[in-house]
Amino acid sequence: MNTLTKVGRCLALLPVLLISTTSVLADEETPIGDWSIIYGSGRAHKNVMYVADRTSVVPSNHNKGAKLVAVTVVYEEPGKPMIDVYNIEVQCSTRKVRFLNGQSVAPFSYTLTHLKVSNTWQTPKEFWLDRTLAYVCEPGKSKDTIAMGKMTHLQMIQTTKAMFEQLGPTQEKSQMIDDLDDMLGNKR
Signal among the record's keywords (predicted)? Predict the structure, then answer.
Protein backbone atom coordinates (compact mmCIF):
# COMPACT_ATOMS: atom_id res chain seq x y z
CA MET A 1 0.00 0.00 0.00
CA ASN A 2 1.55 3.31 -0.96
CA THR A 3 2.14 5.91 1.74
CA LEU A 4 -0.40 8.42 0.45
CA THR A 5 -3.15 5.81 0.47
CA LYS A 6 -2.13 4.76 3.97
CA VAL A 7 -2.25 8.38 5.18
CA GLY A 8 -5.59 8.97 3.50
CA ARG A 9 -7.16 5.91 5.07
CA CYS A 10 -5.79 6.65 8.52
CA LEU A 11 -6.81 10.29 8.46
CA ALA A 12 -10.18 9.52 6.91
CA LEU A 13 -10.90 7.23 9.87
CA LEU A 14 -9.66 9.66 12.52
CA PRO A 15 -12.56 12.13 12.38
CA VAL A 16 -15.04 9.28 12.29
CA LEU A 17 -13.45 7.71 15.36
CA LEU A 18 -13.21 10.96 17.27
CA ILE A 19 -16.21 12.97 16.19
CA SER A 20 -18.76 10.34 15.31
CA THR A 21 -20.80 11.33 18.34
CA THR A 22 -20.30 15.04 17.86
CA SER A 23 -20.35 15.75 14.16
CA VAL A 24 -23.15 15.87 11.70
CA LEU A 25 -21.88 13.61 8.96
CA ALA A 26 -22.53 14.58 5.38
CA ASP A 27 -23.92 12.16 2.82
CA GLU A 28 -20.47 11.79 1.28
CA GLU A 29 -18.29 8.82 2.11
CA THR A 30 -15.73 11.10 3.80
CA PRO A 31 -17.09 13.58 6.35
CA ILE A 32 -16.78 17.24 5.45
CA GLY A 33 -15.97 19.72 8.20
CA ASP A 34 -16.37 23.49 8.27
CA TRP A 35 -12.95 24.49 9.56
CA SER A 36 -11.69 27.66 11.24
CA ILE A 37 -8.26 28.46 12.64
CA ILE A 38 -8.95 29.53 16.21
CA TYR A 39 -5.34 30.01 17.34
CA GLY A 40 -1.79 29.71 16.06
CA SER A 41 1.64 30.09 17.56
CA GLY A 42 5.27 29.36 16.88
CA ARG A 43 8.23 30.43 14.84
CA ALA A 44 9.86 29.23 11.64
CA HIS A 45 9.55 25.44 11.29
CA LYS A 46 7.97 25.12 14.75
CA ASN A 47 4.45 26.41 14.13
CA VAL A 48 1.30 25.03 15.71
CA MET A 49 -2.26 25.75 14.56
CA TYR A 50 -5.48 24.99 16.42
CA VAL A 51 -8.34 24.33 14.02
CA ALA A 52 -11.97 23.82 15.11
CA ASP A 53 -14.74 22.17 13.12
CA ARG A 54 -18.04 24.08 13.18
CA THR A 55 -19.97 20.90 12.23
CA SER A 56 -18.80 19.30 15.48
CA VAL A 57 -20.45 22.01 17.62
CA VAL A 58 -23.55 20.19 18.84
CA PRO A 59 -25.46 19.88 22.14
CA SER A 60 -23.86 17.47 24.59
CA ASN A 61 -25.57 14.26 25.60
CA HIS A 62 -23.54 14.24 28.83
CA ASN A 63 -24.53 17.57 30.39
CA LYS A 64 -27.63 19.64 29.76
CA GLY A 65 -26.77 23.04 28.33
CA ALA A 66 -23.23 22.04 27.36
CA LYS A 67 -21.93 21.81 23.80
CA LEU A 68 -19.29 19.65 22.15
CA VAL A 69 -16.54 20.71 19.77
CA ALA A 70 -13.64 18.95 18.05
CA VAL A 71 -10.32 20.79 17.85
CA THR A 72 -7.40 19.56 15.73
CA VAL A 73 -3.90 20.72 16.63
CA VAL A 74 -1.61 20.64 13.57
CA TYR A 75 2.16 20.64 14.19
CA GLU A 76 4.94 21.69 11.83
CA GLU A 77 7.93 20.81 14.01
CA PRO A 78 9.79 17.57 13.26
CA GLY A 79 9.60 15.22 16.22
CA LYS A 80 6.10 16.38 17.16
CA PRO A 81 2.94 14.47 16.27
CA MET A 82 1.42 15.25 12.90
CA ILE A 83 -1.84 16.14 14.65
CA ASP A 84 -3.62 15.87 17.98
CA VAL A 85 -7.41 15.86 18.02
CA TYR A 86 -9.48 16.67 21.10
CA ASN A 87 -13.19 16.38 21.79
CA ILE A 88 -14.04 19.11 24.27
CA GLU A 89 -17.23 19.78 26.19
CA VAL A 90 -18.01 23.47 26.77
CA GLN A 91 -20.38 25.09 29.28
CA CYS A 92 -21.02 28.62 28.05
CA SER A 93 -22.96 29.74 31.15
CA THR A 94 -20.06 28.94 33.52
CA ARG A 95 -17.26 29.52 30.96
CA LYS A 96 -15.77 26.11 31.69
CA VAL A 97 -14.40 23.34 29.48
CA ARG A 98 -13.45 19.72 29.91
CA PHE A 99 -11.74 17.20 27.68
CA LEU A 100 -13.73 14.12 26.75
CA ASN A 101 -10.90 12.41 24.85
CA GLY A 102 -7.92 13.03 22.63
CA GLN A 103 -5.89 11.17 20.05
CA SER A 104 -2.56 11.80 18.41
CA VAL A 105 -1.36 10.73 14.94
CA ALA A 106 2.37 10.19 14.46
CA PRO A 107 4.03 11.40 11.26
CA PHE A 108 5.28 8.77 8.81
CA SER A 109 3.90 5.72 10.69
CA TYR A 110 0.43 7.27 11.12
CA THR A 111 -0.06 5.35 14.35
CA LEU A 112 -2.92 6.47 16.55
CA THR A 113 -2.22 7.08 20.23
CA HIS A 114 -4.87 7.85 22.84
CA LEU A 115 -3.92 10.95 24.83
CA LYS A 116 -4.36 11.20 28.56
CA VAL A 117 -6.73 14.09 29.25
CA SER A 118 -8.30 15.59 32.35
CA ASN A 119 -12.05 15.04 32.43
CA THR A 120 -12.63 17.66 35.14
CA TRP A 121 -14.36 20.94 34.41
CA GLN A 122 -11.85 23.78 34.30
CA THR A 123 -11.62 27.46 33.56
CA PRO A 124 -9.51 27.80 30.40
CA LYS A 125 -5.94 28.63 31.40
CA GLU A 126 -4.40 28.14 27.97
CA PHE A 127 -5.20 30.74 25.35
CA TRP A 128 -6.30 28.18 22.74
CA LEU A 129 -8.91 26.81 25.16
CA ASP A 130 -10.20 30.32 25.77
CA ARG A 131 -10.48 30.77 22.00
CA THR A 132 -12.28 27.42 21.77
CA LEU A 133 -14.80 28.60 24.35
CA ALA A 134 -15.40 31.84 22.40
CA TYR A 135 -15.73 29.88 19.13
CA VAL A 136 -18.47 27.69 20.62
CA CYS A 137 -20.28 30.23 22.81
CA GLU A 138 -20.15 33.30 20.57
CA PRO A 139 -20.32 32.02 16.99
CA GLY A 140 -19.84 34.77 14.46
CA LYS A 141 -18.62 37.27 17.07
CA SER A 142 -15.05 36.06 17.26
CA LYS A 143 -12.90 38.26 15.03
CA ASP A 144 -9.83 36.24 15.94
CA THR A 145 -10.68 33.19 13.83
CA ILE A 146 -9.84 32.53 10.20
CA ALA A 147 -12.37 30.53 8.21
CA MET A 148 -10.71 27.83 6.12
CA GLY A 149 -13.92 26.57 4.54
CA LYS A 150 -15.58 23.20 4.05
CA MET A 151 -13.28 20.28 3.35
CA THR A 152 -12.32 16.84 4.59
CA HIS A 153 -10.07 16.39 7.61
CA LEU A 154 -7.17 15.38 5.36
CA GLN A 155 -7.63 18.44 3.12
CA MET A 156 -7.66 20.70 6.19
CA ILE A 157 -4.37 19.19 7.41
CA GLN A 158 -2.79 19.55 3.96
CA THR A 159 -3.99 23.18 3.73
CA THR A 160 -2.56 23.96 7.17
CA LYS A 161 0.78 22.35 6.28
CA ALA A 162 0.87 24.44 3.07
CA MET A 163 0.27 27.55 5.19
CA PHE A 164 3.28 26.59 7.33
CA GLU A 165 5.42 26.40 4.18
CA GLN A 166 4.27 29.88 3.16
CA LEU A 167 5.01 31.28 6.64
CA GLY A 168 8.54 29.85 6.82
CA PRO A 169 10.53 32.41 4.77
CA THR A 170 8.74 35.38 6.36
CA GLN A 171 9.33 34.04 9.87
CA GLU A 172 12.98 33.24 9.13
CA LYS A 173 13.59 36.81 7.91
CA SER A 174 11.85 38.24 10.98
CA GLN A 175 13.91 35.98 13.27
CA MET A 176 17.14 37.09 11.57
CA ILE A 177 16.23 40.76 12.12
CA ASP A 178 15.38 40.07 15.78
CA ASP A 179 18.72 38.23 16.24
CA LEU A 180 20.60 41.11 14.60
CA ASP A 181 18.82 43.64 16.84
CA ASP A 182 19.82 41.56 19.88
CA MET A 183 23.47 41.41 18.76
CA LEU A 184 23.54 45.17 18.14
CA GLY A 185 21.77 45.94 21.39
CA ASN A 186 18.87 47.65 19.64
CA LYS A 187 15.73 48.05 21.68
CA ARG A 188 12.44 46.82 20.26
Answer: yes
How far the first Cα of the chain sits from its last, in Å, is 53
Question: For 108-150, how does the pLDDT look when each residue is reduced to its tens digit (9 = 90+)?
Answer: 899 999 999 999 999 999 999 999 999 999 987 767 888 999 9
User: What is the domain partition of the chain in residue ranges?
Assistant: 3-184
H/E segment holding residue 16? helix 3-19
For 75-112, the pLDDT digits (tens) are 999 899 999 999 999 999 999 999 999 999 999 899 99
d(CA 17, CA 40): 25
153-184 helix and 3-19 helix, angle to the nearest 10 degrees: 100
Strand partners, 87: 70, 101
Element (H, E) at 165: helix 153-184
